[in-house]
Design a protein that fits this description.
By secondary structure, the protein is an alpha/beta fold. It contains eleven helices and 18 strands. Strands 9-8-5-4-10-1-11-12-2-13 form a ten-stranded mixed sheet, with helices on both faces. Bound molecules: calcium ion. Calcium ion (CA) binds next to loops.
Length: 470
Amino acid sequence: MRILQRTLALFLVISSTIGCGAEQPTDGAPDSTPGNSASAPNAKRPDVPDIFVITADDLGWADVGFHGAKIGTETIDRMAKQGIVLETFYAAPVGQPTRAAILTGREPNKLGLVTPSEQYQLPRSPYNLPLLLRERNYRTIFLGKWNLGISNKRSHPMQHGFEHFYGNLHSQVGYNNHEYRNSMDWQRNRELANEKGYITSLVGLEAIELIHATPIETPMFTWVSFQAPHLPAEAPLTTLQLFGQIRDEQRRVYMAQVHILDFTIGKIVEALEESGRLDNCVIVFLSDNGGALNASAKNAPLRGGKRSCFEGGLRVPAVIWAPGRLEGEQVLTTAVTATDLYPTILSLAGIPIAEEAKVDGVDLWPLLKHGEPLQERDLCFAYSSGSHTVSAIRRGNWKLVRTAKLGEPTLRFLFDIAADPHEEQDLAPDNPDLVAELAKVLDAWIAENFANATHGKPVQGPKMTVPSEN
Ligand SMILES: [Ca+2]
């Protein structure tokens, strides 16, 4: 019966995509939604919000409507309009470190998570976010792509405090066959989920079911981790037809992936409205790294893309939307990072930050709510594929970027990001002292963090694609 219901619901989702077309906005202002009861006093519920983190995967800076795209991202654009656009949100150059930063608040390089290796995994810690939230009676849910360890036994989301997991452990499963390298990687709570459907829609359906099934007295922490629009380039035929005028085939598929991603987020928001949760919900939306140019993402006018430390690799579309708690129609230009989400979410949940957690990020809520400025800080980034190493430091409006290919001299670029956000004018030749000063700080940071990650011994779990019975 459950499968039948899900299949029917999936059909409705896909059909609705066609019916809605790409340009129909989601209607309704959240503050005036009839029947919205979550903001009413509830004696049984602690005064904390539901928290939804929604991540896209490799989504380009310019691939959302609020940055000019014409892909049909009405719900993301609604969140941007009614919430606060985090216009200078820095992720890592690849997704795995960003994901670790969200769950730990720490520089992910310190955890041994630098490259998107299948063998590195998120270290166990009593301070990981879902564990702390669960101790405070949050229902903790992870849906979609995990990518922080592939072992069912040692690095599973449910061993980090998530009580419900539905999705894939690997990075790049088939959207329709749910396979990674010819093995099924699709599960619900460690049990193989042999279900049919497009994974973006399946993740959305699971979210909707859980939203309706969770008593309003129970606060929810849900990370909806969409794989879209990461490769492989696969989209439902019916959604592809909406973009028939796009000649480039890969771009056409990419746009369809983004569109159905947005459509699915819209259905989740509808469920939050129908269940009376939206007014008491804080939703954070972001991409886990810059758009992947080889997958037809567009970051322009930002320079570069995924795996680079130019803005196109680091700066991602990001929004925080809290209909009952934050004034909307704002754009925040302060530079913030993925490590800041952990202390911000704990702050919302009323959980103090333990010194032992060694958090690097800062609580953004006073800034978001009251405009209190952050203390000045250097933001550092690094990534290495082995043959190609990139790093950057941002101090105020200055940004030093270094790139090095194996066997070639290191290139250094200095930009004034405020005056030149697209990194077109290299000011390094005119400012050798500043370049040297920033390079010194960046080198120290790399020695402390990045070097530790590359030369340390991250815990490795056994490679296991099909969920075990343990
Ligand atoms: Ca990614």
